[in-house]
């Protein structure tokens, strides 16, 4: 019965004669799994062409094993959902017997279910579960996976219907290769009317049905690398249109909104691109990459363990070598002890001889230190003398600078005094001129007397102003004279300082020679006080004053 059902599901012709011939000599009781496998491989599985319904095949296998292995405790999922979880387990399990699903694939499946339920993924909760799982075994069997999902440990707060819909969505994606599905309007080819259909996108075909229960199929759109999809503008009152072009036929379809339209166009275009590249569906390719990554990590881990074993073996060899070296070192230490005794005896003899030499060296060193101390004292006295001379030189430079500044101040005062004398001479000439004009005015006629009297008053006022200015100039001259006396005192002080420094320098062996100013001409005395003019300059000024006076007369 088992063989006949397998042949029926797998679309393989059943050969009862071959079955009888294979088991003719087996009269020792029931056939075990190992006894049935050779027949199954040779007469059934080798003849499979791949044109069978995989879901029906899975249902038959489920019927054979579910009753014996399924947990008797009540679950939050139905038997149909448990069957779908079992099929997903067969898809995600490792390719070795007994079949198990590793923690990485468990996390992938639970994440898909949580996403389908619209809940948030609890990574911390799964990490605790993963730690507890890794301490006991490598993974879960199919029945343990069904218990885990049916217990609701990772779907708390969700009702049975939500969990069932999530399992069905993941089953459609992973097992039935459903990439996208949903209701859309399709335009007919003959009647040109628009009818709502349930579309199901798979890796190489788009099927459309009357409703989502998939009972009444209305047609297929065969996809290949030559197909394309493009958006259409709104027309005939229909919106969100797009067109699927195939070799022999084109299909106009209207989505419910712009978002669904873009999602369908993108999904169909991705499917066509995968067909052109010859790539498997995304979930199968991702599963293959995860398996390859696990195999790579396992190989690296095995290589690491092999290296650790080699290192351990090398470490043991090193330990043996170290033990041999230790024994050799102990023997060498014994020999070294004997040599040490001999060396100590020799060292005592050498030490006595070196002590005498050391005493002699200390005496010589003490004498050298006394000589160095004496030389250091002489050097310090010489350096002190040089520093005193440098300080004296700096002070002398400052005194010369003060003398230079005093001479500059004297020259400034001299120029100011000359300017004041010139102004005073000009004012005196002007006063004499006014006086002559006044006498001429007195000698004028009586008719002009009144007018001249008025002019005289004005001129007298001008004369008073001139006299005031003359007095002011006299005051300024006196102030300039006082400044000159002060500058003269500074100059005398600077000269005295220079003379005192000259005497000091003479006592220090003549190392520094003072720079002295040249001789000065004797000062001339005028009726207004001392002045800094030479005789030639004074004679020139007298001639100039007499010339101005003669001109005014």
Automatic annotation (TrEMBL):
Alphabetized UniProt keyword annotations: Cell membrane, Cell projection, Coiled coil, Cytoplasm, DNA-binding, Membrane, Nucleus, Phosphoprotein
Any coiled-coil regions, as ranges: 283-504
Record-linked Pfam families: EF-hand_SWAP70_N, PH
CDD domains: PH_SWAP-70
Main subcellular location: membrane
Entry's localization field: Cell membrane; Cell projection, Lamellipodium; Cytoplasm; Nucleus
Keyword Membrane: yes
Molecular-function annotations in GO: DNA binding
GO cellular component entries: cytoplasm; lamellipodium; nucleus; plasma membrane
PH domain mapped to chain residues: 177-273
Known role: Phosphatidylinositol 3,4,5-trisphosphate-dependent guanine nucleotide exchange factor (GEF) which, independently of RAS, transduces signals from tyrosine kinase receptors to RAC. It also mediates signaling of membrane ruffling. Regulates the actin cytoskeleton as an effector or adapter protein in response to agonist stimulated phosphatidylinositol (3,4)-bisphosphate production and cell protrusion.
Subunit structure: The SWAP complex consists of NPM1, NCL, PARP1 and SWAP70.
Protein's UniProt name: Switch-associated protein 70
Species for this entry: Scopus umbretta
